[in-house]
Amino acid sequence: MNPHPRRIRLKPWLVAQVNSSQYPGLRWVDPEQKRFCIPWRHATRHMPCQDDENTIFKAWAKETGKYNEGVDEPDPAKWKANLRCALNKSREFSLIYDGTKDTPMQPYKIYEVCDVPLPNGESFAGEDPAGCEEEEELQKMMPTLRIADPSHVAEPLPPYPWLKQETLYTNSCANGNFPHLAPPEVGPGPPAHVPVGAFPVGAEPPVPNFAESASRMPLMPESMAVPGTLQPLPEGGCPAAPIEQFIPNLLISPHMLPLTDLEIKFQYRGRPVGALTISNPHGCRLFHSHLEPTQEQVELFGPVILEQVRFPSAEAVPNEKQRYYTHQLLDVLDRGLILELQGQDIYAIRLCQCKVFWTGPCAGELAGPNPIEREKKVKLFSLENFLNGLILFQKGQAPTPPPYEIFFCFGEEWPDQKPKEKKLITVQVVPVAARLLLEMFSGELSWSADSVRLQISHPDLKDKMVLQFKELHQLWQMQQNMPEGAPSSWEMQTGGNGMQQ
User: Which domain of life is it from (predicted)?
Assistant: First the structure.
């Protein structure tokens, strides 16, 4: 195929072909209204329909240099995609009737020639092979979408046997191994978090204002006297120390890290359509329907304590076929996908009918697509494993830093030969704490002390993780070339004993 298609004006060429009457079925149906009929039979590369060797589609492919007879392999489906793409992109033609969408199907379409003033007086077709190839990709996409498990099409799954999570999380500030740090009863805190609903495509939904949170929230309640913790904050709530001193404090007191925060970014075929940060200590549910969970529907939609995050609308997707297929997937995302936080681990539970594939830190070495089985709990991320990987990397015992990003692909196999940007719906999930820790050691400080959400709560950190944070702090000090023998900030802040265990 010619890699450099010729510059051809579609309107005069196609009108001339209609006037020529040399192609079966291509004819004027209303000359006064400039409306013509074009045959539109189904064809594939291996099963061309009758007369495909003498169609207007083949003629257009030859005219634009996209098909050289005797050199290129005949591909009637691609010829048709090329002409359809050119017609759809042209302002000089308007589709009046599409019989291929009727029941029963009528194998033709009717177009009207439009008298539209063109910019610079010229409009060429055949110059954008990438656009036509995308049309062709989208045309072939529907049969490959993984909308449902065949075994579950006829009969819905029984309700998921959720544990009584409300009893597991009676206190969202569970301390686990830190009973000595258990906060006493505190007065009214910040207002309850409002569940996230739908947000407009292309717009950023409200993201928690970390600086504002820090300004109105003390690091510790005043009534909480805990030996060996950080000094009370000055008025204004934000640390007065420069960022150089604030960094090791994150390691000394890991409760300052936003350990339960997740950054979620939505993309529709590589185009960002929404992003937000959730701070729910239990996790969230990604879904599309308007059915929100209630206490009576926990078995179907998950616990009500989860953040409810609705997929962005696909209405602003410019390509009609892409918008149609995206809607097809969104329609079967009603029950959604649960991202559950347990301790410092992240799990996924797929409730929706649409198949979901993923890659991430806990996926291991993948030889092919990695699906999430329906209503099976899958571990996505472990902070303990991440900390261990970061320690090994800082010691030079691992070639690369540990991964922390999680990617989901809805309705299409992943990973495969296609890049993520070609997938209809993808979601990226980033544990904020992991990103901050990696930035801390890489020197890419795109954040500041004011941007870190200070948490009153003390997460349920295991003894091993406390030791990991202590070791990371020592590695950070070594990285900063601190004087040998100088007392570490960890020892000064904790009375030389580290964090009590």
Answer: Eukaryota
